[in-house]
Amino acid sequence: MDAQRRRHYLQAMGIVEWQRRDTPSPKSEATEQATVSRDSPDAPNDLSRLDWEALETRVRACTACDLHRTRTNVVFGVGDRNADWMIVGEAPGAEEDRRGEPFVGRAGQLLDAMLLAIGLQRRQVYIANVLKCRPPNNRDPRPEEVAQCEPYLRRQVALVEPRLILAVGRIAAQNLLKTNAPLSRLRGRVHHYGDSETPLVVTYHPAYLLRSPMEKRKAWEDLKLAREVAGR
Ligand code: SF4
User: Fold this and answer.
1) Whose C-alpha lies nearest to ligand 1, atom 3?
2) Who lines ligand 1 at CB under 6 A?
3) CA 71 to ligand 1: nearest atom
4) CB of 170 within 8 A of CB of 215?
5) How far is it, in rounded angstroms, from Cα 102 to Cα 96?
6) 107 near 158, Cβ under 8 Å?
7) Cα–Cα distance between 151 and 228 in angstroms, integer?
């Protein structure tokens, strides 16, 4: 990407300077790691043999929780199924539910700008949510809904085999990492997800950044950490 375009995308994120991170920071050297168990007693029937087509068919027909009653579309996930980066959000919003695609609308545009700022186009990553159906009125996902739906995400991660998962937003991060810790304590370090111990970095949800543009600087730090981890 040429310097002018990179500057444009950085400006969209509210970042005015470009600093290449050539050496690990003390913070990244002091990386703490957390491992998440893949075992869930509430997991749907074994999904480990399902290929993409079978998994998508299963999810699109899913009625495992009450969210199937109010959804317009199942939001399965989009992008490169062999991507190095996997972006994981919370759940579909109204626009995503209407269009059947994650991270569309203004938040999606900002996510695209965030990715472009580190040299990634949307089509080069795989994007999915913890929940595949929209919770009414955008309420937080309930534990029983996550328990039913997250096995689908785990299978997606197993199929993609990303080098890095970027968890965007508190809800996604807390559910992936099985913690109630605030986002501020989850950012700035590397976690690991699943049996594969896929490196996982946490950042803000772009919808939050639209409401709190002062935090874009911190999001940029998260992206630089993610880029560094993905490149290891
Ligand atoms: Fe099934 Fe997940 Fe939709 Fe619930 S949210 S109905 S578990 S696909």
Assistant:
1) 133
2) 59, 62-65, 67-68, 74, 131-133, 145, 148-149
3) 3
4) no
5) 5
6) no
7) 28
Nearest CA to ligand 1 atom 7: 149
C-alpha to C-alpha distances, 124 to 79, 80, 83, 214, nearest whole angstrom = 7, 6, 6, 28
Q: Tell me how far the alpha carbon of residue 108 is from its chain's centroid.
A: 12
| CA 150–ligand 1 middle distance (angstroms) | 9
Residue range 197-214: average pLDDT?
96
Testing ligand 1's pocket by substitution, the residue of 62, 139, 150, 156 carrying the most ligand atoms inside 8 A of its CB is 62
Residue in 232, 228, 217 with CA at minimum distance from that of residue 22: 228
At residue 17 the predicted structure's pLDDT band, cuts being 50, 70 and 90, is very low
The pLDDT, as a whole number, for residue 12 is 58
Q: Which fold has domain 72-230?
A: Uracil-DNA Glycosylase, subunit E (3.40.470)
* Structure-token match 């111990």, residue found: 197
Q: How far is CA 71 from CA 49, 95, 103, 220, in A?
A: 27, 11, 16, 33
Domain boundaries, the chain: 3-39, 72-230
The residue whose CA is least distant from atom 2 of ligand 1 is: 149
Q: Which atom of ligand 1 is nearest to the CA of 63?
A: 6
